[in-house]
Design a protein that fits this description.
Layout lengths: L10 H7 L3 H23 L7 E5 L5 H9 L4 E4 L2 H10 L6 E4 L8 H7 L2 E5 L2 H14 L3 E6 L16 H8 L5 E7 L8 H19 L7 E3 L6 H6 L4 E4 L1 H4 L17
Helix pairs in contact: 2-3, 5-6
The protein binds pyridoxal-5'-phosphate (PLP).
Protein name: Pyridoxal phosphate homeostasis protein
Function: Pyridoxal 5'-phosphate (PLP)-binding protein, which is involved in PLP homeostasis.
Family: Belongs to the pyridoxal phosphate-binding protein YggS/PROSC family.
Length: 261
């Protein structure tokens, strides 16, 4: 396969992604995969049971061509508008798109057109709207139900106590394919505070599995905490910065009330 034609890197791009983003991303991916393997080894898990979902937010579309070349086939975006723009710019590549951020009902129609998975389902109203739109597009969507495991008021996601009923409710929406649960842990560098969020999500999943065998997956862990998440059972880790480098944007752009603890 011929590499896609590329324009020379701007100084800004070279500063952020290195003079050869392909090699940068390859090396970063290898390092993340190695860390996944070592986390798995610590608790006797098969590394093949963990999927690395690359989170591409803020990485410009033309740079994502290098990521594609480096082997990434599923791109995770937090904001729907950014996902739409990139998808248009990259429509010559066979990419699967994941949306991992909170979705407003008025954006559902866009997501329903192209996303293959959605990691932030957190209300019946949203599920209902998504289902209708998917029906119209004749598509289905893999969904992960977001749970607030940190107890922070600012966080999106269902309360743990609402989960069982919610999973029952989802059976009314045949276009949605529940895959599992998703969470954002407490934002802290203290893993003693982070780990219990992941443990809780695993327990909730195990409970849910008794009535809802389709909820097998645990989407949890990001650059700062994915190894702990894997130790607690993550089957999908959503990793951005460890692959693409530090983001120029603040995390508060994505998560309301973001405040590192
Ligand atoms: C940005 C984002 C991630 C990845 O965070 P990194 O620190 O870049 O690894 C994971 N999940 C969600 C919902 C995100 O918005």
């Amino acid at each position: 396969m011929n590499p896609p034609l590329r324009s020379p890197l701007s100084q800004e791009d070279a500063q952020r992604f290195g003079s050869d983003p392909f090699s940068t991303f390859r090396a970063n991916l290898a390092s993340v995969e190695d860390r996944i393997a070592r986390a798995c080894a610590r608790i006797g898990r098969d590394p093949a049971s963990v999927r690395l979902l690359a989170i591409t937010k803020t990485v410009p579309a033309h740079i994502l061509r290098y990521a594609f070349e480096a082997g990434i086939r599923c791109f995770g975006e937090n904001k729907i508008q950014e996902a739409i723009t990139k998808r248009e710019a990259l429509n010559d590549l066979a990419i699967d798109w994941a949306v991992v951020g909170h979705l407003q009902t008025n954006k559902v129609k866009y997501l329903a057109r192209f996303a293959s998975e959605f990691h932030a389902l957190d209300s019946v109203r949203l599920a209902d709207t998504l289902n209708s739109r998917l029906e119209r597009e004749n598509r289905t969507l893999d969904v992960y139900v977001q749970v607030n495991t940190s107890g922070e008021e600012s966080k999106f996601g269902l309360q743990p106590s609402e989960l069982m009923t919610f999973a029952d409710d989802l059976e009314r929406f045949p276009r949605l394919r529940p895959r599992g649960l998703m969470t954002l842990a407490l934002f802290s560098t203290d893993m003693m505070k982070v780990r219990p969020c992941f443990t809780l999500l695993r327990h909730l999943r195990d409970e849910l599995l008794q009535n809802h065998p389709e909820f097998t997956e645990l989407s949890m862990g990001m650059t700062g905490d994915f190894e702990v998440a894997i130790e607690e059972g993550a089957t999908v880790v959503r990793v951005g910065q460890a692959i693409f480098g530090k983001r120029p944007t603040s995390d508060s752009d994505y998560w309301p009330g973001f405040a590192p603890v």
